Amino acid sequence: MRLTSLDVFRGITIAGMILVNMAGVADDKYPPLDHAAWNGCTPTDLVFPFFLFIIGVAMTFSLSKYTEGDKPKSAVYWRILRRAAILFALGLLLNGFWNKGIWTFDLSSIRLMGVLQRIGLAYLFASLIVLKLPRKGQWILAAAILIGYWLAMMYLPVPGYGAGVLTREGNIGAYIDRLIIPKAHLYKGDGFNFMGDPEGIFSTIPAIVSVLAGYFAGNWIRSQTVKSRISIGLALFGIGCLIVGWAWGWTFPINKKLWTSSYVVFTSGWALLLLAACYELIEVRQIRRWSKPFEIMGLNAIALFVASVLLIKILVRTNIGTGETAPSAYNWIYQNVFASWAGTFNGSLLFALVTVLLWWVFAAIMYHKRWFFKV
């Protein structure tokens, strides 16, 4: 069974990712197109957990044969491990691309973790949980992970900082990452300065629940026979998650870079609401014309993800002209083609929108040629 509304949801998410990534390179951008500085959640902070949620929903269908009677064989586990390894390797490729030269990968300083690495690890462990535990056990473990992560972050002391210090370098997750990952392979941007990682190993543990939340939503979809009841149920669950996540945030702040438990619940709520809207419009009411462009992008999401990030790196690290003051290709295009007449904020937005359109054209060509790249 292929769920068109899920492909559309995935397409909306990849379009959103390209939009915020491209706009985010500019110095001036509209606040919704930038991550929260630390605590809090902007629309940009929803993109990453949406990808994990979508993977969980898709797992409901891809693993259904093995969760409804058939015992998974070793080939199934190898296939899951292979997918996770490919995602991790693609993440390393993006991290190492053009850091010191276009064809040079500096293995001595390459960042170990990243977005695709987290996706690969979260997918791997969520798949094992789904295949090894009964339904009730999955829910119990998901709750235990979120509560255990909360207690660890708030009450385990960090040498030199103490307990409950939720700063970039003082939290227990950053401390554990520093123990496991050599300093040269940690994240150096956004004030982390090799003292932690926004996609670190420890904070990947609650990200597993972001995948499981999607899996639970997919189970709800597959278990219902009345389509309108599906979208209503998803919406009600989503509202409940928003309330619980927001309330939890008063004691354990909603924070993407720490992937706090409240952030997992809160962003899962928004994912449920968007999936409910897509399902209601597409599967129930059969209003599909608006969704086709997003479906086209959603069918080649991984290719668009990797290619768009590589393009941004090329634009940022290619200079127009010579000398120390030579602008990057990104800044030159942004300033001369967009900001010169639209202004800085509108210029960064328009540049991002045009980029999304160009990638849609690329995706449409792939779609019509039936080229679908999957991991």
Short description:
By secondary structure, the chain is mainly alpha-helical. The protein has 14 helices and no strands.
Describe this structure in words.
The chain has 375 residues and is an all-alpha fold. It has helices at residues 4-24, 47-62, 64-67, 74-96, 115-132, 135-155, 172-180, 204-223, 227-248, 261-284, 292-298, 301-317, 329-342, 344-368. Helix 4 packs antiparallel against helix 5. The relative contact order is 0.15. The mean pLDDT is 93. The protein is globular, with a radius of gyration of 21 Å.
Oligomer designation = single chain
Please tell me what the overall shape is: globular
**Class based on secondary structure composition and strand pairing:** mainly alpha
Largest sheet: none
Labels describing this entry:
375 residues; mainly alpha; 14 helices; globular
Write the layout of secondary structure elements.
Layout: H1 4-24, H2 47-62, H3 64-67, H4 74-96, H5 115-132, H6 135-155, H7 172-180, H8 204-223, H9 227-248, H10 261-284, H11 292-298, H12 301-317, H13 329-342, H14 344-368
